[in-house]
Every structure is written in C-alpha cells, then in structure tokens.
Design brief:
CATH superfamily: Metallo-dependent phosphatases
Order of helices and strands: EHEEHHEEHEEEHHHHEEEEE
CATH architecture: 4-Layer Sandwich
Radius of gyration: 17 Å
Number of strands: 13
Number of domains: 1
Oligomer: single chain
Bound molecules: manganese (II) ion
Length: 247
C-alpha cells in the first residue's frame, strides 16, 4: 500500500497552475494502481468550500470528477477539513462517498501509526482563531451555512481571504522559526493524547520534517507546507518509508 499526503493548495479557480498539477497527480494515481492507494487530503485543498452547495461542485468540477474517478477505481480517500473547507461531508461523503473528518485521526499504514490532522490547533496562542473555530463548528451555524447560497459564501470568503492572506503571508515570512517551533512543540503534546510513529499536519504553510525524542521514543513530525512555492512537493509513504516527491 502507498499513501500520499497533501494539504493547503488553496485552489481558487480551475485555471491556476496548482489545479493543473493536482489534476495530473490525481490522474496518475488512478492510472497506476488505485486499489493500492490511500490519499489523504489534509485540509484547505480549496480556498473556499462550504457545505454541499452545487456552486462549488460546478466551479471545481474537473477536480471533483478526478477524485470521484480515483475513488471509483478502488482508491481510498480521507479528507480532513481545514479552515477553508468546512462542513464538506454534505457533498464529499454523501455524493462522492469518501471519508470526511474534522479532528485528528490515526491510521496504521504498513505497520506505522500515523496521526493526521489539518493543523489549525497547533497555534494555541491564536485565541481569536480558536474562538472562531468553535463558532464555525457549532451545529446551529452549520445549519445556517447550508441555507446560504454558495455564491454568497464565495463573496464573503473572497473578502475574508484577501484580508487574511496579506496578514498571514507577511506573518509567515517574518515568523518562520516561531512557526516551526510551534509545530515541533505540538508533536510531543499530541503524542501524550495518544501515541504514534509519525504526525502529519498542514495549515502552517511551512515545510518541516524532523525527528523528536519523546521519552525513550523517537517520533517523526512533518508539516506539509503549502503549494504556493515555485515547485510543489508532496509526501509519500511506501513501505515504512516517508519520502518527499516533487510533482
Ligand atoms: Mn488552514
């Protein structure tokens, strides 16, 4: 079995470079040995996807079709929601038939215990976001979310994303070391909740891959970074070997 881990592509349109790269990648998985593949989508794949609105389905139709094709040919797909793709099980589970989760999950893959999560709980200092997260995740808010048309969400989302992108892009370049420190602090904290061999997250938009000593054990902590750079790297597990692959 081989597993692939991707996150934080933040696809806005089908016309951009990363839509093409992702499409090509999905097709290659479907063509090779789909029954052997477990693809992990660790959140913020789309820059905005809320609920089960057909608006988003139509907007990203070629990607929807490619993911559906991988699933239909026997590939296993796990989608963990990010903070830009929210309450998406309404479409991705109900219509496409893939597993959608919100909280961190554990999988045993080729004998390795792997914890996967979006990573939006790594920065515990970001109280404002943690508050917002609990609002977004509230069932009453979810119900309202399904009633508001997708096109309206897109307007709201475009405005919010524009503001936060400027802020977070500057923040990230200035604070890269601090972000890496947070990722590396999160790993042993998560390990205390439940043990694992490897923890994989996204959200921070900083690639990090290191070994951390926890008690008498070594665990591996990986953050996937984003697809904003000049080249795109994704993480692949084959056997018990985790490696970076350039798409
Ligand atoms: Mn995120």
């Amino acid at each position: 079995m081989e597993a692939w881990f991707i996150s934080d592509i933040h696809i806005k349109t089908m016309q951009e470079r990363n839509s093409e790269i992702l499409l090509r990648f999905l097709h290659s998985l479907t063509e090779k040995n789909p029954q052997d593949v477990h693809l992990f989508l660790l959140g913020d794949i789309f820059d905005l996807w809320i609920g089960g609105h057909t608006f988003f389905v139509k907007k990203f139709q070629p990607l929807v079709d490619a993911i559906q094709a991988l699933k239909d040919s026997g590939g296993k797909i796990t989608y963990i929601e990010g903070n830009h793709d929210v309450h998406i099980d309404r479409f991705w589970t109900d219509e496409v038939g893939i597993e959608v989760c919100v909280e961190p999950q554990y999988y045993v893959l080729n004998g390795l215990t792997v914890r996967v999560e979006h990573g939006d709980l790594i920065n515990q200092d970001d109280k404002a976001y943690l508050r917002l997260r609990s609002v977004i995740r509230h069932p009453a808010i979810e119900a309202i979310g399904h009633l508001i048309p997708g096109a309206v969400w897109e307007q709201v989302g475009a405005y919010a994303a524009k503001k936060s992108r400027v802020r977070s892009q500057q923040y990230r370049t200035k604070n890269e070391n601090r972000l890496i420190e947070m990722i590396r602090k999160h790993a042993p904290r998560a390990y205390l909740e439940k043990s694992f061999d490897v923890i994989i997250s996204g959200h921070m938009h900083v690639v990090d891959d290191c070994e951390i000593q926890v008690g008498d054990r070594k665990i591996r902590s990986i953050n996937l970074g984003s697809w904003y750079g000049a080249s795109v790297q994704v993480l692949k597990l084959s056997g018990q070997n985790m490696e970076w692959v350039t798409l």
